[in-house]
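Model the whole thing, not chain by chain.
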Amino acid sequence: MFQIVCLISKTVWIHFVPIPDRTEPDKRPGTALLRAAGTGSESDRARRAAEEEEEDEARVEMSESGTQLFARLEARRCLKDIEPRLFPDDGGPDHGEVVEVYGPEGTGKTELLYHLLSRCVLPEAAGGLEVDVVFVDTDYSLDMLRLVSILDTRLNKGRTTLKGLSTSPSSAGSDEAALHLCLSRLLVVHCSSSSQLLLTLHFLETTLSSRSSLALLLIDSMSAFYWSDRGEGGASISKQEEKLSKSSELLGRLLRDYRITIFATCHAIRRSNSGPSSSETDRPFLCRPWQRLVTHRLLCSRQEADPDQAGSDRGDGEQRRRRVFRVHCTSSSLSSTGTKGSRTSSFRVTDGGVEFI
Amino acid sequence: MVILREGMCPGLDEDLLRSLRAADIRTVEDLVSSDSEELAQKCSVSYKALFAIRRVLLAQHTAFPVSGADLYEELLSSTAILSTGNPSLDKLLDSGLFTGEITELSGGPGSGKSQVCFGAAVHISHHLKQSVIYIDTTGGLTASRLLQMLRSETTNTDEQMEALQRIRIVRLFDVYALLDCLYGLCGGGLQQASVGGGSVKAVIVDSVSAVIAPLLGGKQSEGMSLMTQVAGVLKTMAKDFSVAALVTNHVTRSGSGDVQPGLGVSWSHVPRTRILLERVETAPSVSRSSLRSATLIKSSRQVQAAHRVLTLNPSQPCCIKEEFDLRWWSGAAGGASGKRKLDQAGS
């Protein structure tokens, strides 16, 4: 790392030394030498001082680009531990990896995204990672009220476990302040067409470079414009897939340059008629550039209710019956073991979001 | 696809456009995705000018990121919950129709979808004093039925007329007219319709499947793209103008014989809340019962309410079901005799 930086700008060392003030010429190494030499006429000295001022300015500019380089390559937090119960052993998404969450309607994909989102924006005290997140919403499916209720529940849980038996009153103001802080780590963008998605991703590049704590990009969903693109593209498949391909290539470049992680949902478009284990409905249908980017695939489905639960509750009365969802993860990531791994987990949706069983 | 035209932004004149077209850059997306340095060399234009044009075009056409905190504040101040008038239905919907979302009612013929829509429209216009836009694609709406429902709410004819005036009815029978109407509403029709009292708080489309279902099926995908277009403009309208969208849908049978809402898998992601209406099996002696059962098949909120009383249905575990009477809106079962008395007194 340091060698690369040195090659680009050998003055990066000056960045680590406090950059000398214009008002304190004594600290500048150049003038110190001059003064030590003590020779030359006034005009000579002035000329040399002016030259060195220009050099210093250039140094300051180049050293800023050194910081930017560091911000680009170093500061993004690795999200391998974002949810270890979803991924196979030590197979969480690394820098620059893409996870696709695929499933038919009502199988908890958006709930999973809320779960990951809250895990990222919550403070460390409540079990979060304190990173910034960008949520690209293509079909207006972000329910802020639900997200806020999940964040609230988790913040309260974190607060009670921390305080234990302490009787200090938690004022409503501090609750709100904590919630506001969490929400300020989230950026939401609404896109209404695939061309707007492409342009927005170009625009997001500046956001990515300026915020070094931004480590996660959530897209819900990638397949929202599938049918409109097919209608616009007419008969040629390449024209139909053109915009999504361009977006995928741009996403690939952003992944390589900025080392973020992407989670994207994809709605199923074919109904599974032949039971839960039909492979044809789970086949990816988005364009090839996108499929090449995807390193982990989470297949969501609904699980049948537990038979013993059904037997115990009969008749009227309060029943707590929650639907159970199943997630099957297949990873083809090359970074971890080089081989494909897979894992199946189940979860329920509660007030506090997703709860793994 | 936004095509580059001269005058779109300062600096984009005809000569530059011609040289860009010669370099095969015709749309804004092409310009933004291409490498500015290469393009500047090819078109012999200054890199700085091209970069400035690119920046202005991006600023004009992208969606801007909003902080989550600002979005939440906005939502808190603009979201409203509209009651449908029937307390059992409201319980199912978690206290009513939410603005900014699409709610779907599906059911077979005669299951009461249109009656529920009439009742909701009457309740919103009379009790909540807000305007409603009712898009009728089946021809099943008659003003006399609305008046009948209003008569059971109030006897004052002025109030009845006022409430009727707040319900704007649009009749159309194909999807292009529907798109036209919805785009017109987004473009300024909603503000115009808010003249004369409350702002428009609900848009009811009865039924959306009647105009879309004939286009689906077969090899062409135009029907699907038109459906996603209708979904997109409904969602945009609901979100941007904070109205509650209520749509109705037909039903089909799935492979295993269960009744499910129509319009396929791609439509199933569109509504936030889905309710299935069915007739209640009653004794054969009681014909033409007005009891219906509503099952909540998709909701993002009822996770909290899973402790409500469930009617056990072994084939559909975990679905909340409520029974309600269609005559609620025209004076409930107890008040039906009251209505008859009113008629006798009136005539």
